[in-house]
Amino acid sequence: MAVPKFFEFFEGFLRAIEDGELHTAKEVRQILASDMQLSEEDRGEMLPSGKQSKFDNRVAWARTYLDKAGLIETPSRGKYRITNDGKKALASGEELTLKYLERSEEFRKFHNTITPNVSSLVDEEKDESPMEVLDAAFQQITATLASQLMDEVMKLSSTEFEKLVVSLLLHMGYGNGITEAGMVTQQSNDGGIDGIIKEDQLGFSSIYIQAKQWVADQTVGKPEIQKFVGALQGQQAQKGLFITTAKFSSGALQYANNLLGTKVVLVDGLTLTRLMIKHNVGVSVEHIYEIKKVDSDFFSEEL
Q: Within 13 Å and on the Cβ side, how many CA atoms surround 241?
């Protein structure tokens, strides 16, 4: 089943600690997962950022909201206990929603600190916790950037595109950083090789590059990879990079994966733009947002 919305954990969280004893976050998660019949697969589903599970994130935000509304308390680090107001909430039989929590003045102050655009997304009609809203926005911005970046890449001449590929590899740490770390071959006599770059800092070996600037909906098939492998053999080379703005057929991918004695890595258009964004090639940083959390270790030490 789908992981419940973060506010759908409100009542379950209170039920898990309604005995009035102290409970750890791990205990609460285990009880919630069991009561809501969430499988290991459900619990393992990750946020778009890949840094935390959706289940853990939503339970944590449920805990934060309940705490701000005064329905639970944290008398010691990482341990939670229901309050009298929390017991009253359960006894009332009312549905525990964000509207219920907003009866608390402290919670309203907390909730109103969220910017209007974000707070309008974090309501009972949405699945996402505030962190998920930020993650989703980041993913959307990155996807838009990748599309815009590919538009610019397609405006380059073939020679400029080949130089871009070599520049990207240098930014990724390839090349010996001394002399002739990477180069684009002469078009009139490239022998099927568009560029060459040193694989390591000391320049012991080279990677031979083929760069195909094709439109995104085109497909690079197995024959193109076979030709590239032939060009590598002509250079007595064992390592090659075939990079394109298009995509690869399943036959091309399977062929490259099953080669013996020669290693060929295939990079399609989507991966190309992701690498350019990651290594700041053709893009610049506009804003940096830091998401911070309480350092529990700091507060557990004697101050």
A: 23
